[in-house]
Amino acid sequence: MITWAPAIAEAPALAFDHIALAVRSLDRAVVLVRDILGATFVIGGDDEKLAMRTLQYKLAPGTKIELLMPLDDEGVIARFIDRHGEGFHHATLFFEDIGALMPQLESAGFEVTGTDLSRPTWRETFLRPKSGFGALFQFVDSNLDWGTPVPGITEEAVLSGKVVWRGNRPVLRDSSG
Q1: Of 60, 164, 169, 175, which residue is least crowded by CB atoms under 10 Å?
Q2: Contact 103, 139 (CB under 8 A)
Q3: Residues 6 or more apart from 170 whose CB is under 8 A from it?
Q4: Full DSSP string of 13-54
Q5: What predicted TM-score, i.e. pTM, was given to this entire model?
Q6: Confidence class for position 104, pLDDT limits 50, 70, 90
């Protein structure tokens, strides 16, 4: 018999930010998210280190969908799609301080991975799917507003590969590409 007790969270989630979908091509995914669901573009760009293009769209207030497309056959998203097919990749939740959350997770027997606390603009850790009941959770704290479009970064520029992530912010590629 399970005994239910109220949760005593020392570092409760501030907000659910988005779900991310891994897709082979953005063309069809954009039709669903933007044209049919009515979402509006927020942010995106190419992450050259992870070999993926990201596009994030805002639905109703507080709800976003991120599309992740591989840029080559060897990157993390390409490997994910090869193993699992297209679909749900991760869910992102924001916290005030993930440094305070991590000991809670670990002391309760949950395994974290991919922790990077080096940048105040995006401090993250992930809950391994085997600890997250089959789901990859990304836990983040940040000193930036991730729900507001970045001036000069358009959906068209991202889709055409003209935007790249630099220092946790998207910027237009220089002419050297």
Answers
A1: 175
A2: no
A3: 43, 44, 45, 150, 153, 158, 163, 164
A4: EEEEEEEEEE-S-HHHHHIIIIIIT--EEEEEEEETTTTEEE
A5: 0.88
A6: very high
